[in-house]
Write a structure and sequence with these properties.
Layout: E1 5-9, H1 14-24, E2 31-35, E3 41-45, E4 53-57, H2 64-80, E5 85-90, H3 109-120, E6 124-128, E7 143-146, H4 149-159, E8 164-168, H5 174-184, E9 187-195, E10 202-208, E11 215-223, H6 227-238, E12 243-251, H7 257-262, E13 268-272, H8 279-282, E14 287-290, H9 293-304
Parallel strand pairs: 1-4, 4-5, 5-6, 6-7, 8-9, 8-11, 11-12, 12-13, 13-14
Antiparallel strand pairs: 2-3, 9-10
Helix pairs in contact: 1-9, 2-3, 4-5
Amino acid sequence: MYTKLKLLTGKANRPLAEEVARYAGIPLADIDLFKFANDESFVKINDNVRGADVFIIQPTCRPVNDSLMDLLIMIDALKRASAQRINCVIPYYAYARSDKKDQPRVPITAKLVADLITVAGADRLVTVDLHADQIQGFFDIPVDHLFSIPTFARHFESMKMENIVVVSPDSGGAIRARSLATRLNCGLAIGDKRRSGNDDKAELLNIIGDVKGKTAVLFDDIIDTGRSLIQVAHALEEHGASKIYAACVHGILSANAVELLEASPIEKLFITNTVPLTEEKAKCEKIVQLSIAEMLAVAIKKIHIEESLSVLFR
């Protein structure tokens, strides 16, 4: 049934790809991927992929532009090697926050990246928790948009936390936070903040909802520098939350995010492994990484045999 299924990965997140391969029971294909002395990337597929249904597992995480370029070159190599279908599994989709023209003379980079992937020759995209749902419409190929909410919900249920309230850091993430709150059968609160400019600085205006004496779970799709999320955590502390946890799908953790987290009132930060942790970041006792490898493996096998993915949303 899976004889024509091939798994491929670049350098962006090999540990995740290896874990997906173990769950799927399909070995990773052998490829050469390196840079020449002039900084140009080179890819050679060593396995036969003619007529194969190939899945490239390559999040576009740091170094973002190298990861993206490696992905495009792998797509081109597979197309020229006569792969039957090329599926890009991009757990973390970079440039997703540039999804609209909200200032004069700025690009919509999320659309540009979608065009690059499509023109390179991809036939399908599989991704996890896009920053904005409408990015699916930037592609002229099928998009399977998976969600980590079931993974987080199962973990929080296993912790047997009581008197929970899920908190969205801002109104833009309210729908996402409401989905987690529904699964946990708990209330919802929202941070009211105002952002100006292109940096990560925002002014928190208020906490909308009852958090006093409750276990607050801050839920967002991305933690980058962490300043905005931690600002909300301090506000929750001021509003009387008894415990504060944070859950973010994509743990970018740029700049001094880990140091800020260590000094914050957040007891634990739960992230997935869409983005790999450096050795230094992995040492932080406040960070707990949950795996989405099994979900991706199930999705890959179901897509290959043309079955519905609805089971992954339960």
